Amino acid sequence: MYFMGMTLNAEMRQDIDKIGLDAPILLRRYYRLEILERVSHAVNGLRDLDAILNIGLDSALEVVKSAIGGILFVDNQSQTLHYRTHRGFVEDVDKIVIPLGKGIAGRVAQTGMSIFTEDVYRDPRVLQLELGGVEHLRVFIGMPLKRRQGTVGVLVIASQESGMFAADDISVFSSICGYLATSVIRATVDAKIAKGMARYQALLHYALGAQEDERKRLARELHDETSQTLTSLTFRLQAAIQMAETKGFGDKKFKESLRKAHSCAVQAGNEIVKLMMDLRPTLLDDLGMSAAIQHYAKDTLEARGINVTMKFIGGEYRLPVEVEVACFRVAQGLMSNILRHSKAKNVLIKIECDASKAVLCIEDDGIGFDVDKITEIEPDGRGAGLFTMRERLRLVGGYSNIESEPRKGTKIKVTVPIIRDLKDLADEQDNSYDS
């Protein structure tokens, strides 16, 4: 036995015999449950709002075997409705705008109550434009898509035949509308979150860019002013020491004070150079990321007695400036963490680049840590470096993978995609880089 495309199998026959219902009634219920289950699966399994709306509309039309209907969205700002998806209309209803409170759909959106009419052309509430140019329509129903937040849309179904809507059809429509309203509200929330995240990313990009510009400005000022002044002071102190020793004026204590002052000036100059390297290494601009990371590792890790092994693969091309700066800052932060926390004796730094990506891997044999416990930035600042690394990488489309266990060392792999045309590689060899 068949009903609405469904086969009455042996299990259904047993259910019918037990309940004592007519086969068509029970099959009708099975059929509606199947339709609702389809819509429910779409709502829970899909993230594409238009796909969900189309499944919902087609399912509603299938209930009453109609080919005419649509879903309208409420625009609260303009107080109007417009069709988001539709079926069977003759005119281009995508351009139709219905004011709230006007027509069947407008009244449903305004009141949040369903409206059903079986005589379209005699019902004064009907607007001709919402009929989409379809002639000889008899039945028109509008049902709200609403939740606690209010009405977000209207489901409309029309037919050229009267008497085709049953009481249980309205119940099914109401359930479908509830499902679709949930999807619309979820999509609205997702859009707001995405907009907020985009704004956050833009602000973060601006902040990191401003930070990099400020680093470069400070490094330039230290080089052009402070470093030059200290160099001049060092030479003058050296000249004073030589003069005192050559001409024999001043006692031993005076000469010792000059030597200490000269030593302090030299030390201050070295500290300024180190500070400039931290702020903006000239090697990053002149020779690129690999050379800058190698030089920084020697000045920081090897200077503290940590053995550093460097491996470079495919470093013959200069990378886009944002990739080089991001990878260098990440490496800088990771090496700082190694010095402060790892107690490592050996560090392996591997850089591998090709036309599509740059991969930076830093591995140490230190005390390691439990990655799962670093879920937020702690009051003492622990974890800030990892979160900053992830945010910086996210701005350039990169990502990281952290492998670490207590007493088993740490391995951090960073991957940054390179988005550019291969034909630009040769041209970039002659260009200077300025972030």
Task: Give a description of the structure.
- The chain is α+β, with helices and mostly antiparallel strands.
- It is 51% helix and 19% strand.
- The protein has helices spanning 10-19, 23-45, 49-63, 103-111, 167-247, 252-279, 282-286, 289-300, 321-342, 384-395, 424-428, and strands at residues 2-3, 6-7, 68-75, 80-87, 97-99, 115-117, 139-147, 150-159, 307-313, 346-353, 357-364, 399-404, 410-417.
- A hairpin with a 3-residue loop joins β10 and β11 (357-364).
- The protein is elongated.
- Mean pLDDT is 83; it is low at 1-8 and 421-435.
Name its key features.
single chain; 435 residues; alpha+beta; Beta-Lactamase; Heat Shock Protein 90; 6-stranded antiparallel sheet; 5-stranded mixed sheet; 19% strand; elongated; disordered C terminus
SSE arrangement:
Blueprint: E1 2-3, E2 6-7, H1 10-19, H2 23-45, H3 49-63, E3 68-75, E4 80-87, E5 97-99, H4 103-111, E6 115-117, E7 139-147, E8 150-159, H5 167-247, H6 252-279, H7 282-286, H8 289-300, E9 307-313, H9 321-342, E10 346-353, E11 357-364, H10 384-395, E12 399-404, E13 410-417, H11 424-428
Parallel strand pairs: 9-10
Antiparallel strand pairs: 1-2, 3-4, 3-8, 4-5, 6-7, 7-8, 10-11, 11-13, 12-13
In short:
This protein is α+β, with helices and mostly antiparallel strands and 435 residues long. Helices cover 51% and strands 19% of the residues. The chain has a six-stranded antiparallel β-sheet, sandwiched between helices. A five-stranded mixed β-sheet has the order 9-10-11-13-12, covered by helices on one side. The chain has a two-stranded antiparallel ribbon with strand order 1-2.
